[in-house]
Amino acid sequence: MQQEKPLWEPSEAFQKNTPLYAFIQSCGERAGRAFDGYDDFYAWSIADRGAFWSAVWDECGIRGEKGSIALTDTGRMLDDRFFPQAKLNFAENLLAGAGDGDALIFRGEDKVSYRWSWNMLSQTVSRLQQAFRALGIGEGDRIAAMMPNMPETVACMLAATSIGAIWSSCSPDFGDQGVLDRFGQIEPKLFIACDGYWYNGKMQDVADKVRAVTARLGVPSLIIPYAGDAKALAASISDAKTLDDFIAPYQAKPLDFVQLPFSHPVYILFSSGTTGVPKCIVHSAGGTLLQHVKEHRFHCGVARGEPIFYFTTCGWMMWNWLISGLACGATLCLYDGSPFAPDGNVLFDYAEAEGFTVFGTSAKYIDAVRKDGLTPKTTHDLSKLRLITSTGSPLSPEGFSFVYEGIKDDVHLASISGGTDIVSCFVLGNPLKPVWRGEIQGAGLGLAVDVWNDEGKPVKGEKGELVCTRAFPAMPIMFWNDPDGAKYHAAYFERFDNIWCHGDFAEWTEHGGLIIHGRSDATLNPGGVRIGTAEIYNQVEQMDEVAEAICIGQDWQDDVRVVLFVRLAAGVTLTPELEKAIKTKIRTGASPRHVPARVIAVADIPRTKSGKIVELAVREVVHGRAVKNKEALANPDALDLFRDLPELKT
């Protein structure tokens, strides 16, 4: 349906004041041409990837030796190499500030708050760097952390990467088996953990879990004080020290940054693990850095000294993305705990107090704020806020509207999508273009993103597979424990030869934007027609009676039927009238093909630690198959609610 006008449109003055606008002019001068607007510039960034990424390096002031070759283009995505001669250090580029100004601001719900200056951050990194080296940790060794999103975590990561070690993290709400399923595969030389954490106003004790994990990993441990008793915990573990004891022998001195190849590993991230043991995805220092500074500086307009925020845990790739904001000289506003403790205003209170310019969150959070009846627009001073970003799942059209109606009317709303696989975004915001309801604005610069049908042909205005047709710096360098690259190839290159297939079901719009209809492996196929689950959620979750929904395809009579599970609002029951209203809403808002054959009320919906609902796991349970890795879930007991349901027998 054609929209009459966009929700937001940047003024000419706004556009000319963005770093992206200046970058386009600069690249035009370098290339000896004038670009005819953003679309022409984007096309150039794909056609001449070497020149484009070289310009990103220069414009963002990357510290290191670039070398004379920006791209070795072989014509094969897996064989292309960016900056093969380059030498740099990831941490050196993130420690972009100095002095007494804020580098990190932290709040742990309403229990803890403190700030670190750039000097404090650098000094702590220096002392940790020396302590890590004293343990014999060096290039290529792994450091694994089960930590809250707090300044000490950032310092440990920077110290690790400053000496060429590889960083991997998860949040402390993982069960011990979930931690071991991840870190056990990568055999770290050091395990870092907190002594407890706050969630929903309560202290969460992790002592038994930390002891269980350290016993299995069999490596030295570093205990960071936060919500519990670090000294007592460290004393109960063989070869463990508190942070104070660990760095006590060392005084801060100028940092020594090891210069390493562009492709040197910096992070190991993990797939969700809901269909088996998590895959260990290894990302490069140079590729991650370049992609992140491009997204922060040009797509998000981040400037030195700006307070920027993303609600994330250390088990989600958005943590890695947020921390790279330091490379732009931004002040990172960290938060750990529930976004509704003590109430739903807590993050907006934080935004007002610190003057956030960028507020990043999930689509689920925006929907929860809307359903709670909160209107920060009328209760908070968000005058400095210029960008809201949303990811984790597709933001519904109603979510788009609510941001402007309930949070702020003059703000750039950027729905973004990418993932752990690329530790960044394929499609995201663009400060030079309007925001249309329900649409992601477009592809990232330098990324040859497209939508292909099952025959491998590009399509517009119809749904297909989200692909990337040319190599890009943020491709993983490998999977851990995948010596012949078979798992890597199967994950991205099995569907189409020499084409990255991302696993999202997507569609280009008439505005050049994109709609993500859900994950490809969760699409529904009633009567052989592919339907994205997000299309159903967008309708059902508009209803006040429905708090949340999850939809699967059930194999039935040689076909597939759509089954919708709903978690209802407090005090609501699923009556025949409500079921009819749900089906009518879907039929009129989506299509008759989207209407579920069964609507079933459940008390809870299973989700990952980062809040994503797990359609595949529910589908396995409904079909009587085992779910391979429940440790990946925040609420694994919820799966039992979907087992052997009589409504699904007929």
Descriptors:
single chain; 650 residues; alpha/beta; five-stranded parallel beta sheet; globular
Protein architecture, described:
By secondary structure, this protein is α/β, with parallel strands linked by helices. The protein has 21 helices and 32 strands. The strands form nine sheets. The chain has a seven-stranded mixed sheet with strand order 6-5-18-17-19-20-21, sandwiched between helices. A five-stranded parallel sheet has the order 8-7-9-12-13, with helices on both faces. The chain has a four-stranded antiparallel sheet with strand order 25-26-28-29. Strand 20, helix 17 and strand 21 form a beta-alpha-beta unit. Helix 8 runs parallel beside helix 9 (207-217). It is globular. The mean pLDDT is 94.
